[in-house]
Write a structure and sequence with these properties.
With 302 residues, the protein is of the alpha+beta class. The protein is built from five helices and eleven strands; from the N terminus they run H-H-H-E-E-E-E-E-E-E-E-E-E-H-E-H. The strands form two sheets. It has a six-stranded mixed β-sheet, covered by helices on one side. The longest helix is centred in the first third of the chain and has 34 residues.
């Protein structure tokens, strides 16, 4: 029993240390030796964070319970204490217990899991829409509700980083978004599989060529002026680790002023710069039809 008493003390100490796992959530971004998830910012991430903590307690209690049972069996039914083993082969009550109880635990986990899944997937009354396109190896962003402009965001090289900018996470252009706004993200790719991931927003959505995936986020007004970082979370090729996501949250007034400037600074999606036509080649479909008709008429007259 002395051994079991010591084991209980160790288990209690381990459970006590689970509390500091949430210390990492007070940080604005991930740091070395940090435990736990990053600080939740959006309602989706807050629910993910809660669900993660609940599951951590459940699996810890199950692990300790199974460990205690194993140690008890080793002690109680050792050869010294049980020289004549029982020949019992079945115990209906025990078999029902170890079948029904795990099923009930899984059902209890499934209900909040499904609610969280649908909550993160359903976009309700989006105020703005932003399109993120994964490319090899950078991100392109489009703002269809604010002039339909687009720009590319490349990772800043190590030698170009300024003090305070995180390595492998800083981009030359930031995805600027307003706080206190329901934001719909439309995510796709132009070449191979990518993944748009923003840990503190609870976003992790595949970018699939030829397919559009949708998710959403809402960032409270208290986070205006802060910058958040994510990365591509799909093995998309040799440049996979060099296509970060940098999101800059601003107030609604600052966002309106930025979009006015962005309409002039960035290109429009539906009005790309016209490519110079080759010499003697028609520039439009209408001209192509005219050239073909004239050529056919000349051939018929001959």
């Amino acid at each position: 029993m002395n051994f079991l008493s010591r084991l209980g003390a160790v288990a209690a100490a381990f459970l006590f240390t689970l509390g500091p796992l949430t210390l990492g959530k007070a940080l604005a971004a991930s740091e070395n030796y940090q435990l736990g998830l990053q600080a939740p910012v959006t309602p989706v991430m807050e629910r993910i964070d809660w669900f993660h903590d609940i599951l951590l307690w459940i699996i810890t209690l199950i692990t300790i319970f199974v460990l205690v049972l194993l140690l008890y069996v080793m002690w109680r039914f050792s050869e010294k204490r049980n020289p004549t083993p029982s020949k019992t082969t079945h115990n209906l009550g025990l078999e029902l217990a170890w079948t029904v109880i795990p099923v009930l635990i899984l059902i209890g986990i499934a209900f909040p899991s499904f609610r969280l899944l649908y909550f993160s997937d359903q976009v309700q009354d989006a105020d703005i829409t932003v399109k993120a396109i994964g490319r090899q190896w950078y991100w392109s962003y489009e703002y269809p509700d604010h002039g339909n402009f687009t720009f590319d965001a490349y990772m800043v090289a190590d030698e170009d980083l300024e003090p305070g900018q995180p390595r492998l996470l800083t981009t030359d252009e930031a995805l600027v978004l307003p706080v206190d706004t329901n934001i719909r993200f439309i995510i796709t790719a132009s070449d191979v599989l990518h993944n748009f991931a923003m840990p503190q927003f609870g976003l992790k959505t595949d970018a699939v060529p030829g397919r559009i995936n949708e998710t959403w986020a809402y960032v409270p007004a208290e986070y205006a002026g802060q910058t958040f970082y994510g990365q591509c979370s799909e093995l998309c090729g040799t440049g996979h680790s060099y296509m970060p996501v940098m999101v800059q949250m601003v107030s609604k007034a600052e966002f309106a002023a930025w979009t006015e400037k962005a309409r002039e600074e960035y290109a429009r999606v539906d009005d790309p710069a016209a490519e110079p036509a080759l010499a003697g080649e028609p520039e439009t479909v209408a001209e192509t039809v005219k050239v073909a008709a004239a050529s056919s008429a000349a051939t018929t007259s001959e």
